[in-house]
Amino acid sequence: RTHKKAAVWTTEEEGALLDFLASHLSQAGDGNFKKATWNAAAAHMAHNHPPGLDNGDKTAESCERKFKALKKSYYAVADLKSVASGFAYDDEHGAMISLDNADLWDRYVKVMYQAHKDAKPFRNSGFPHFASVKLLLP
């Protein structure tokens, strides 16, 4: 039995998806894009970023899943940027966790009822799509 290859997204492809969605923002009436927009996004990605040998097609469903994942990352970074998180956050370097505050970071992402588990990738890496995702939210 054969499995479809998973769609693997580069930062550039994520940006292309967000740019496409921004150009179709008027079609997101209640803050959610319709099926037709996701179909058009998949066609746009197939035309402008065809999959490589090790990469699956960027279908309407995978485009929608990617956008949901990017929104999760946006909200995690927005929490990190708030003063309440207790961390300094930089769009390029993330939360800049060092040995001095590693225990505090671990508690933040693990212990606090999993409330901040989506922040884990931003320990020492920024989120390049923060502003682009923000423009797409209601």
TrEMBL record:
It comes from the Eukaryota. Residues 1-71 form the Myb-like domain. Signal peptide: none annotated. Pfam families: Myb_DNA-bind_4 (PF13837). InterPro entries: Myb_DNA-bind_4, SANT/Myb. This is Myb-like domain-containing protein.
